[in-house]
Amino acid sequence: MNKNFKETFMKYFFFIISLISVFALFLICYFIFSRGIPFVKEYGLKAFLFGKTWAPRNVPASYGIVSMVVGSVYTTLGAIIIGLPIGLLTAIYMAFYANKKVYKILEPAVQLMAGIPSIVYGFFALVVMVPLIRSAFGGDGMNIITASLLLGIMILPTIISICDSSLRAVPKAFYQGSVALGASKEISIFRVVVPAAKSGIISSFILGIGRAIGETMAVYLVAGNQPRIPASLTQGVRTLTTNIVIEMAYATPKHLQALIATAMVLFIFILIINTIFYFIKGSEKNYE
Predict the structure, then answer these.
(1) Which of 10, 190, 263, 287 is deepest in the core (most CB within 10 A)?
(2) The domain 66-250 is classified under which CATH number: 2.30.30.100, 3.30.200.20, 3.55.10.10, 1.10.3720.10?
(3) Which of 216, 109, 212 is nearest to 160 (CA)?
């Protein structure tokens, strides 16, 4: 009786604890959507999403965020192009090519990268990367290229760690069987092991993209923070996240509603990306 009571109690205790995270998510959604939707209805969805001018101090004020959406997309795509292949190939090296001594150095180094605060990354980029980009491409060095390079570096620890774990979780019989049939080591890795670990690899890509989209302070230091649609990669941009952090401190009530609506767009943007990857993973499982 006592044992059954303890088991039942712990079951419901853990259930209640698990509900806290769900409740926190619903609370965030309620806060964002309850304040963001009324503003979008009043200002106009088309004018808000596709307006090219962000000038909250003008009379009348303009709250078009298309330039920030474009800035977020450009910097995130740049980070993906840089970070995803480097992260995956590094994980493959760690899982199949690195000896134990090298692995013991690489693994804590990757973990250390994950623990570095974003402001430190941003300061490093401001002092080191910005002058290099300035000398190579001209301008002031604070542009899409610099922000993309920085974000590509920042998402590496997430991608490397998860991909490495996923590759190591694949049964060794997969690799050994492929080699036994005459395939080379490279073909066995890329044609057999990597596809078998694709669920974890896709998950690492999702988390990496989410990190790139949601990054604020590091991008704030190097992106240029200019609310305009860039004509080239060497021009500065302002992302959705940096727009919120720059203007939140002095925002008037109407301006604050626009910033919360910006956060709502960012939230929906990330939700769409996660949903797309979720269906991709689901379709692959059904195919298997």
Answers:
(1) 263
(2) 1.10.3720.10
(3) 109
